[in-house]
Write a structure and sequence with these properties.
single chain; about 350 residues; alpha/beta; Rossmann fold; 2 domains; 6-stranded mixed beta sheet; 4-stranded parallel beta sheet
């Protein structure tokens, strides 16, 4: 098990800055307040109260709509008229597409050629132009930035932007309002770090005793690598199974928060993600994508490692954009694990 602990040495001024931005973010023009749902079977299995923050129930089936809308709504009229460009493995892309359509902005979105068809269709069906380029997110990002230089459009970062981080931080605002009683830890999927940065800023400012635990795929653990090195690093390769979090380098704005306010980072295997998808289905009858199940997989590993009992643990189910054909692989891996 790979974990690390960050020293809490940062001034609270940075957190206060983000809390104010989170409270002012007009995300509910488009996003919805998602339920914090009890997971009775998972709770019984782990001996702790497990609550699921159901971000898979957003209009684009992912939390990304929050940050995307918060960024786009604050563009100047001139920027809106020129249009926007972004790069995404799929969930941010759909958030930008929907937000742009609602605001009357032309959007072009660069996605890796390996992006699941479901996510590409989600972009096109919402009126944006999908440009498939490269085999991974870094390649798509580089191409998007080239297009920005030649087009005059505004780039909408998928995670490394204060307004995007603030939009994602509204997840934490809801969690603390929904769970005003005991709350020991919040488990957050990590790709580029926008979601966990927003959650950490809000929670650590208001309820600093609550632990913030990041959960990454073993094949794309860029936050853990950065925490260990004390600076942002670029992973030499990235596993695309959890495509929604397949990022080679954590964002600069996000890492500024995470390095001091994230308590621990856990990595999980693809098999552990497949098992978590099944556990979530058993409790909710909903199907998450691999990156959407990271937090639940992290809760299981955390409980086993630390031996905690009787705690209240929140897992953010971040997305449900999984191709139907991929479910067969997930089911086969779960069956194979149970046979061992």
């Amino acid at each position: 098990m790979s974990t690390c602990t960050a020293p809490h040495t940062a001034e609270t001024g940075l957190l206060e800055h983000y809390v104010k931005k989170i409270l002012a973010a007009p995300v509910y023009d488009l996003a919805v307040r998602t339920p914090l749902q009890a997971a009775p079977a998972l709770s019984a299995l782990l001996g702790n109260q497990v609550l699921l923050k159901r971000e898979d129930l957003q209009p684009t089936f992912s939390f990304k709509i929050r940050g995307a809308y918060n960024k786009l709504v604050q563009l100047t009229p001139e920027q809106k008229a020129r249009g926007v460009i972004t790069a995404s493995a799929g969930n941010h892309a759909q958030g930008v597409a929907l937000a742009a359509r609602e605001l009357g902005i032309k959007a072009r979105i660069v996605m890796p050629s390996t992006t699941p068809d479901l996510k590409v269709q989600g972009v096109c069906s919402r009126g944006a132009e999908a440009v498939l380029h490269g085999q991974n997110f870094p390649s798509a990002l580089a191409h998007a930035l080239q297009l920005v230089e030649t087009s005059g459009c505004t780039f909408v970062p998928p995670f490394d932007d204060p307004d995007v981080i603030a939009g994602q931080g509204t997840v934490a605002m809801e969690i603390l309002r929904q769970q005003q009683g005991p709350l020991d830890a919040i488990f957050v999927p990590v790709g580029g770090g926008g979601l966990i940065a927003g959650i950490a800023a809000y929670v650590k400012y208001l309820r600093p005793q609550v632990r913030i635990v990041g959960v990454e795929s073993q094949g794309s653990s860029c936050l853990l690598a950065a925490m260990r090195a004390g600076e942002r690093v670029v992973l030499p390769s990235v596993d695309g199974f959890a495509d929604g979090t397949a990022v080679a380098q954590v964002g600069a704005y996000g890492f500024e928060i995470c390095r001091d306010w994230v308590d621990e980072v856990i990595t999980v295997s693809n098999d552990e993600l497949c098992s978590a998808i099944k556990l979530i289905y058993d409790d909710t009858r909903s199907i998450t994508e691999p990156s959407g199940a990271l937090a639940v997989a992290g809760v299981r590993k955390y409980v086993a490692h630390h031996g905690v009992q009787g705690q209240t643990l929140v897992a953010v189910n971040s997305g449900a954009n999984i191709n139907f054909d991929s479910l067969r692989y997930v089911a086969e891996r779960v069956v194979a694990q149970s046979a061992l």
